[in-house]
Amino acid sequence: MKLWYQSASSYRYEATFDEYGRVLEEQCRRVARPDTEIYITGLPVMMREIDRFKSINYLHKVQMLNNMLKAEKEGYDVFVIGCTTDTGLEEGREMLSIPVVGISQASYYLAAMLGELFAIVSISDYFCEKYRQQVVRYGLTSKHLSGNYYFPASEEEIALALKDPKPVMDKFKVVAEKAIADGASMIVPNPAFLATAAYRAGVTRLGNVPILDTISIAVKAAEMLADLKKIGVEVSRKLQVYGSPGKELLQLAFEKYRNVFKIEF
Predict the structure, then answer these.
(1) Which residues of the chain carry a pLDDT beneath 50?
(2) How far, in Å, CA of 16 to CA of 4, rounded?
(3) pLDDT of residue 248
(4) What count of other Cβ atoms lies within 10 Å of the Cβ of residue 96?
(5) Which SS3 state, helix, strand or coil, does residue 10 take?
(6) Residues forming a β-bridge with 118
(7) What gap in Å lies between CA 263 and CA 265, rounded to an integer?
(8) Are the CB atoms for 11 and 41 separated by under 8 Å?
(9) CATH match for 105-213 among 3.40.50.12500, 3.30.200.20, 3.30.450.40, 3.10.105.10
(10) Are 120 and 128 contacting, i.e. CB atoms less than 8 angstroms apart?
(11) Strand 186-189 to 118-121 pairing
(12) Fewer C-beta neighbours within 10 Å, C or N terminus of the chain?
């Protein structure tokens, strides 16, 4: 099985994310099956503001979609969106015939299955709001302990802290313990940088409450969906769900919009 894991960072393109990428490679491969070949990469262009604004994230999404099409063309069996905004999930499932996994969607559903209420611990108030909206779209409001469970930290700070994750994890634990006291029985660390930092520090639970390794969950979900596709179990192709336009119509659309699908500013 060939699995493409797509980070929203600039791993492979920007030295700042070298350590993050190294740990991410280790994190993915430790849970993958022996017969699973994993390619892990970031995106060439990344602005630090992509997660703050929907408009800028939209521009970032194009790179994600291009790599999805590239992965399918190169014979990959499944594509993982390793960005916790699940950037391009719906479009990718429409365009591709192979399974597309969103890291947040996979983690939330597993958290809802394994616990009663899950809380998302993050690094900013706007992330908390983004994830709250995401949970609503995924139909999991009744399983989500909503609240501003976060501590201030930049994604770059977390990436650089992977060599010494203790300071970040100390802050994380304080917020996670508050969520647990409020009723959470599962903790989801988002964004993905935070899950990798927790992995690097060996933080897997607080008391009886699991701290989900969202990256490992995404890899295992990808393997499962690729296996299920072989026996005919896959996404609904009903129109306005994940109805596929098909290769011919998709190619026609790419050619039709080629001259206007560009940025003029």
Answers:
(1) none
(2) 22
(3) 94
(4) 21
(5) coil
(6) 144, 186
(7) 6
(8) yes
(9) 3.40.50.12500
(10) yes
(11) parallel
(12) C
